[in-house]
Design goal:
The structure holds two protein chains of two kinds. In chain A, 56% of the residues are buried. In chain A, strands 3-4-7-8-9-10-15-16 form an eight-stranded parallel beta barrel, surrounded by seven helices. In chain A, strands 5-6-14-11 form a four-stranded antiparallel sheet, with no helix packed on it. Helices cover 30% and strands 20% of the residues of chain A. In chain A, α2 runs parallel beside α3, α4 packs across α5 and α6 packs across α8. Chain A has one domain: TIM Barrel (Alpha-Beta Barrel), CATH 3.20.20.70. By secondary structure, chain A is α/β, with parallel strands linked by helices. Chain B is an alpha/beta fold. Chain B folds into three domains: 92 residues, Translation factors (Elongation Factor Tu (Ef-tu), domain 3); 115 residues, Nucleotide-binding domain of ferredoxin-NADP reductase (FNR) module (Rossmann fold, 3-Layer(aba) Sandwich), CATH 3.40.50; 47 residues, Dihydroorotate dehydrogenase B (pyrk subunit), domain 3, CATH 2.10.240. Helices cover 18% and strands 32% of the residues of chain B. Chain B contains five helices and 16 strands. Chain B starts with a strand and ends in a 9-residue tail after the last strand. The mean pLDDT of chain B is 94. Classes of the chains: A alpha/beta, B alpha/beta. At the A-B interface, β5, β6 and α7 of A face β14 of B.
Chain lengths: 305, 261
């Protein structure tokens, strides 16, 4: 049969295929370029950008856990100005959608980063990380309170000319409540899930293995949780959902697509295998070919209830 | 930087819990420089999830050499590889040692498995006047270089229990070499456990001898994407952290914050 059609639509965003890289696992796109071509992907989501450069947390920042890893990088990044001058020009030359992940410590910071990216060419969309601590509200994550999550969304929407994807935290009682609040605030799409909070202890030293104490769990260990939340949210909102959480191979990505995600992001797998995102893309294509399915869109939401 | 499925040529025990492995990749061998490292997938699947970083211990034709100690789950699995098995490897990665130039006697100071990158450096420098000092805990840990097929290197050994060579720490050997040197050495190269590195850096910086330190760290990607392998830079430098995988693993000792590291 002919090559299956891999194109998908995330709201107004047209992706040539449903495989993107997840923020924080693919740097600014250039890091893996010597061994894989990011232009083949549906999109690249770059590391979270804040208004000012952030050095990040003290080490150790990462530790491996059963079928997963904990990280407490501390949102280290070069900051808006250096991103625009040093990182973006290379990304603009890619033949794929570049999605810029943004975050702030206050509502004003979210607004300022979005404003700083307004009118900049070569950015297909913003992805808003609402899992970071809100310094104005005692460090509680923006993404755990529906009203605050909605405020962040509104603020970014006011300051941008680009589609806004809000990335949801799984560290909440009912993710659908946050998803609906963000949808009502006007978000164009949702991506989920961010990492699950966890910790691990060195029993000899009796200290946390991460200098930060706790960290975010990612990798295949979280995949069933992520899949369930994607399934829940897809049914709770009317905006498109991008699914992620421990996707290591094509069959994992297909599960998220069948659950109703319009696209997927590959994160921790990039560390284990720098070609993982492309392998997953090829695997999805092969799955469709083998079954005579003409378009990946026939897979999306095809879960039999 | 090359990503390849490579064939294990040999993988043999050479000292207590210590293995010497060769794997074949001509392009990787051609690119490798002393101080660089590779990320190895010890087996396919999700357990362990992440690759493990290993210093390159040398190259022999199209074969890369690594020397490693079994310290956990990942290295235990690696130690069971047989000739003909394949391992997925990404490398060479990071910035290696900078050559010392033609100046006075370079000194190489290793502790334990820190000997691996310094073997590569020592073979590459191939200088008659170089001093190679290696410290171990006890004699069964001593890596016999002739068993690795490495000729022409005869490091001075120190063991903490005195069972072989100098009784005590390798830093004591370093101090005695420095105190008897006719001219100030032009460079110290070091790799090993952190307390040893701190002591070597202190000695070198105290005597104003340029010192290149090879660090190890937990890391997920090896290419600068995850930012997991942060190391604190000396106070006053603009960015608070450097990354072992990309800015290192070899650093100029004076650029690091030895109080915090």
């Amino acid at each position: 049969m002919n090559k299956p059609d891999l194109a998908v639509q995330v709201g107004t965003l047209s992706l040539k295929n449903p495989v993107l890289t997840a923020s924080g696992t693919f740097g600014y796109g250039q890091e893996f370029a010597p061994i894989m071509d990011p232009s083949l992907l549906g999109g690249v989501v770059v590391k979270g950008i804040s208004l000012n450069p952030m050095g990040g947390n003290p080490p150790p920042r990462i530790v491996e856990t059963p079928c997963g890893m904990l990280n407490a990088i501390g949102l280290a990044n070069v900051g808006l100005e250096v991103f625009l001058s040093e990182k973006l020009p290379w990304l603009q030359d890619l033949n794929t959608c570049v999605i810029v992940n943004i975050y702030g410590h206050t509502l004003d910071e979210y607004g300022a980063v979005a404003a700083g990216l307004k009118g900049v060419s070569g950015i297909a969309a913003l992805e808003v990380n609402i899992s970071c601590p809100n310094v104005e509200q005692g460090g509680m994550a923006f993404g755990t309170d529906p009203a605050v999550a909605a405020q962040v969304t509104e603020r970014v929407l006011q300051e941008t000319d680009k589609p806004v994807i809000v990335k949801l935290s799984p560290n909440v009682t009912d993710i659908r409540v946050i998803a609906r609040a963000v949808e009502h605030a006007g978000a164009h799409a949702l991506s989920l899930i961010n990492t699950l909070t966890g910790m691990t202890i060195d029993i000899e030293k009796r200290t946390s293995k991460l200098a930060n104490g706790s960290g975010g769990l990612s990798g295949p260990a979280i995949r069933p949780v992520a899949l369930h939340m994607v399934h829940q949210v897809v049914r709770a909102v009317n905006i498109p959902v991008i699914g992620m959480g421990g996707i290591m191979e094509a069959r994992d990505a297909l599960e998220f697509l069948m659950a109703g995600a319009q696209a997927v992001q590959v994160g921790t797998a990039n560390f284990a295998n720098p070609r993982a995102s492309l392998d997953i893309l090829e695997g999805i294509e092969q799955f469709l070919k083998d079954r005579g399915i003409h378009s990946v869109r026939e897979i999306i939401g095809s879960l039999k209830s | 930087m090359i990503e390849a499925s490579t064939e294990v040529v040999f993988n043999k025990r050479v000292a207590r819990n210590t293995f010497f492995m060769g794997f074949r990749s001509a392009p990787m061998a051609n690119e490798s420089k002393p101080g660089q490292f590779v990320m190895m997938q010890v087996r396919s699947g999700i357990d362990p999830l992440l690759r493990r970083p290993f210093s390159i211990c040398g190259v022999n034709g199209d074969v890369l050499l690594v020397l490693y100690r079994v310290v956990g789950h990942g290295t235990a699995i690696l130690s069971e590889k047989k000739p003909g098995d394949f391992v997925q490897v990404l490398g060479p990665l990071g910035k290696g040692f900078s050559p010392p130039g033609a100046a006075v006697q370079p000194i190489l100071v290793a502790g334990g498995m820190g000997v691996a990158p310094l073997i590569f450096l020592s073979l590459t420098l191939a200088r008659k006047d170089q001093k190679f000092l290696v410290g171990y805990g006890i004699s069964p840990e001593v890596v016999p270089l002739d068993q690795l097929g490495i000729r022409g290197l005869s490091p001075d050994i120190a063991t903490e229990d005195g069972s072989q060579g100098h009784h005590g720490r390798v830093t004591e050997l370093l101090e005695s070499v420095l105190s008897t040197a006719k001219e100030k050495p032009s460079a110290i190269f070091t790799c090993g456990p952190l307390p040893m590195l701190r002591a070597v850096a202190q000695i070198a910086l105290g005597q104003n001898i340029p010192c290149q330190v090879s660090l190890e760290s937990n890391m997920a990607c090896g290419v600068g994407a995850c930012q997991g392998c942060a190391v604190k830079k000396a106070p006053g430098l603009i960015k608070p952290y450097a990354h072992v995988c990309q800015d290192g693993p070899v650093f100029d000792a004076k650029t690091l914050d030895w109080e915090v590291i």
